[in-house]
Write a structure and sequence with these properties.
The structure holds 2 protein chains of 2 kinds. Chain A is built from 20 helices and no strands. By secondary structure, chain A is mainly α. Chain B is built from 3 helices and 10 strands. Chain B is elongated and about 90 Å long. Chain B starts with a helix and ends with a strand. The mean pLDDT of chain B is about 95. The interface between A and B is medium-sized, with 36 and 33 residues.
Amino acid sequence: MDATLLQQKDRLTSFVLLLPLGFLLLGTAIRFLAFRYQVPDEPFIRYFDELCRWDCDWYVLMAEGGYHQFPTPNRSNAANWAFFPLYPMLVGIIAKLIPLPTVVVGSLVSLCVAYAATVLAWPLLGRDRKAYALYATFILSGPVSFYFTTFFTEVMFVLLTTMVFRTLGNKDYLAASGFAALLSATRIVGVFVAISIGMQALVDYRRTHGTWRGVVWGILSQHKLVLAIFVAPLGLFVYMAFLNYWVGDGLAFSHVQRAWGRQFDNPAIYLWRGLTNFPSEGFRLSPSQILALSACAGLALTGVLAWRRQWAAAILALLAIIVPLMAGLASMLRFMTGMAPLTITLMTLLARYNWLFILSMLVMLVGAWFTTLAWLGGNIALV
Amino acid sequence: MPLSSRSKVVAIYALAALLAAAELVVFWQALHPNVSDNYRAYYITRSTTCLPQPVTADYALGETVDFTSAGDRDAARELLPCGWESPNDDGRQSLGETSRMRFAVGPQQDLELELVLKGINLNDAGNRDIRLFAGEEPIGQALLGPEATETFRFSVPASAIKDGYLDLRLDFPNAIETSPGIHNTYWRSVKLISARLSPA
């Protein structure tokens, strides 16, 4: 390799590694200034606590005290079995080693995971510098960057989803299933990535053989693929086995949803109710409308994935939208923005034209200020 | 295929089979939970909206318990296993289609229960229907108008007291769905203002 090529490669590596670092610092500055602006009387040290809201509080308690038994110690029906174990327990272990408050450790780990998730997404963004810059902005200093930089499981979900699709891109089903197993221990919808792996294997078979004939034997004769199919949902099954031992109910994570008033219904009905839930006054969107529009945007981007024939990602995205939607619109904005295949697709679209690229970046950076203020103000659409 | 490669392939298939079997066992266990009747009724069969939590039920016969925010909220909480909100100025709202109360009353004896309740006024839903049970025994029924506050008295037979405790259950067959599609664990019916048990 000649010197010029080496130099170009070095420059590219520096770009990929340093650009997210810049956005990480910028995003931290924006969020910190928003915190100072919103709660000027709070001491600086409260920054991490103030950004830790809603589910984040649950994760902190889980990292410190583990899972509830039944009856719960606080005599509440809403036990913490609904929250999947991987990320809170990982932070809990790290917090045992580092003498800092759990919320601080959780936030610092999230910053590291968010940085890694961004860098590792480089090939999935088509090695396009503009798409990569937008994605780095979105994850590290964008309007909902507080999801990825405080103690929420979204950031681990993004990292593991990214790794699944990177390894699937190399037809390494076994490695993909390893990440999928971790993903299925991070959020319930993570288990659907097992279907994505199966879908990718089918697509690869069709591409290689040019026909569907002999597909069943073709799949079953791939010993690593067969193993991958059973490794992928392992995280969920291990959690179920734990719940069975701990509370006597392996499906407690699902059953406990009742305590939050989650009612299973037709997702289209929830979507329609949300879209038509107009605010009583003014022209701003109601929280329900914002959540419903987030789901619609997710469905539209799933359509783009399908149009691009990225079937494995499309099936994951579709299931990860429809299944939570069956229990209502709650947290839909967070779920959509934490779906790497959707946000990666969006960034590739926004990077197509220079003017759109610049506008998108500006909107995201300015938006970060306002949404962080809304987050600190307890805006229900952001929950 | 060389023998070592073949054994590796066989080992991988065997591992896959082992994982599949383990996952089936976990799945089977999940379909057959080993839980208490209360847990099953609330979380699994959803046959009740009220999951009794452990309470001390500490109570002195003849004492009137104030369930509004002006009362001793910690002491009051120990009489309410489930189905009640946190206290407000005008009492604790019932949550769901059933609410429970528990009193440590000592040896079996006939009692008189006095309940002060206020009807919830939501969506022009009309009168609140309240069915009262001591243990599993029905002891009375009451109708309460929207926003109306009334004192109800019920006779509690000695046989309803088990192991020194009186368990009261209030069923609300026409509890109000506060918003369309909301789960019945969030439905409302009455506000509990005060309660008193005294020897009959």
